[in-house]
Design goal:
This protein starts with about 40 loop residues before the first helix and ends with a strand. Strand 1 and strand 2 form a beta hairpin. The chain is built from 14 helices and two strands, in the order H-H-H-H-H-H-H-H-H-H-H-H-H-H-E-E. It is mainly α. It has a two-stranded antiparallel sheet with strand order 1-2. The structure holds fe (ii) ion (FE2) (2 copies). The site of one fe (ii) ion has 7 residues, from helix 9 and helix 10. Pfam families: FA_desaturase_2. One of its GO terms (cellular component) is chloroplast stroma.
């Protein structure tokens, strides 16, 4: 998955949580090497050591297990439904593309040299701002361990044993395995291009996986699957747009790569939206309340805690470039919301509770409000400065 809509562009978020102090940069004299026993320093030193592995941004207070226990039964009863309706959206491994299908063949040095040279030639003229966005997309894909943890945090559908034969668990593992190819392929392609600072990128991946993500889905599969429906659509849009731009810049191979990844995301979107569609069918009140809840919180982007060791606002900077290039924009956010409202037939829901009707009105009235905010954000973007990105050797890119 990848996505980089900057929710703060629209409305400042009120964090009800504690504020983490900014972490000091790693300084060798104070840093406890992993090979040694835990620091036997003062309480302050131990706390500072811990902070190095925490996100630099505020994290919301955890709200846990908000789905009433009796609703876990809904997911148990949907086990057979999931087998028939969810697993069909997975592709058998033997029919899947693999990163190597798109990369120079290392087993033949002549062919490798030629294909490598062609790759460098194709990527030579691609502008820096495109690379900033592609790198951000790739890093977001590379944070896959967190997404699998996230799915396994959801009550009623988690993989209880890491080898569970429940359909929900099979889906989660196979989905993860499919996703794993996305970051892998983009990473290798970017590495071979020689256009980006791989060490800085690798550090950013390590930071991001180490930070975790603040999804706010409360172990609740209603919230979780609304989140993934939204995300998969967003990544489909984002990879689709990097494909178009790659073609415009003359790299048809990269266009093919991004397009191929986008089509995986589309298939995942279909699967996750089918789950929520089913929830709307059997529990419309619960589903609409969850939909409104996620939209009030805003869909927090997975790469929200992205950090390269230098730029405390890297997520906002990366999002701004993606917005400017039209790879993923506030308009897309509104479009996705409208699409989901339509797909889940939210306007036609009837027989809802009073709270359910309020949630329905809220969700249906939201897209025009987001669009108005988007226009204002675009005005602000016109005066944006250029800033250096470590991923491209500190060259400056306009936000
Ligand atoms: Fe992906
Ligand atoms: Fe996906």
């Amino acid at each position: 998955m990848s996505l980089k809509f900057d929710s703060i562009t629209f409305q400042s978020q009120k964090f009800t949580s504690f504020a983490l102090p900014l972490m000091p940069r790693l300084s060798s004299s104070k840093f406890c090497m992993a090979s040694k026993a835990p620091c036997s320093g003062t309480k302050d030193e131990v706390e500072n050591h811990k902070k190095r592995f925490m996100p630099r941004q505020k994290v919301h207070v955890e709200v846990k297990h908000t789905m009433p226990p009796q609703k876990i039964e809904i997911f148990k009863s949907l086990e057979e439904w999931a087998e028939n309706n969810l697993l069909i959206h997975l592709k058998p491994v033997e029919k899947c593309w693999q990163p190597q299908d798109f990369l120079p063949d290392p087993t033949s040095s002549d062919e490798f040299d030629e294909q490598f040279k062609e790759l460098r030639e194709r990527t030579k003229e691609i502008p820096d701002d495109y690379f900033v966005v592609l790198v951000g997309d790739m890093i977001t894909e590379e944070a896959l361990p967190t997404y699998q943890s996230f799915l396994n945090s959801l009550d009623g559908v988690r993989d209880e044993t890491c080898a569970s034969l429940a359909s929900w668990a099979i889906w989660t593992r196979a989905w993860t395995a499919e996703e794993n190819r996305h970051g892998d392929l983009l990473n290798k392609y970017l590495y071979l291009s020689g256009r980006v600072d791989m060490r800085q990128i690798e550090k950013t991946i390590q930071y991001l996986i180490g930070s975790g993500m603040d999804f706010r889905t409360e172990n609740n599969p209603y919230l979780g699957f609304i989140y993934t429906s939204f995300q998969e659509r967003a990544t489909f849009i984002s990879h689709g747009n990097t494909a178009k731009l790659a073609k415009d810049h003359g790299d048809t191979k990269l266009a093919q790569i991004c397009g191929t990844i986008a089509s995986d995301e589309k298939r995942h979107e279909t699967a996750y939206t089918r789950i929520v569609e089913k929830l709307f069918e059997i529990d419309p009140d619960g589903a609409i309340l969850a939909f409104a809840d996620m939209m009030r919180k805003k869909i927090t982007m997975p790469a929200q805690f992205i950090y390269d060791g230098l730029d405390d606002n890297l997520f906002h900077h990366f999002s701004a470039v993606a917005q400017r290039l039209g790879v993923y924009t506030a308009k897309d956010y509104a479009d996705i919301l409208e699409l989901l409202v339509e797909k889940w037939k939210v306007k036609e829901l009837c027989g809802l509770s009073a709270d359910g009707r309020k949630a329905q009105d809220y969700v249906c009235g939201l897209p025009p409000k987001i669009r108005r905010l988007e226009e204002r954000a675009q005005e602000r973007a016109k005066q944006a400065p250029s800033i250096p990105f470590s991923w491209i050797f500190d060259r400056k890119v306009k936000l």
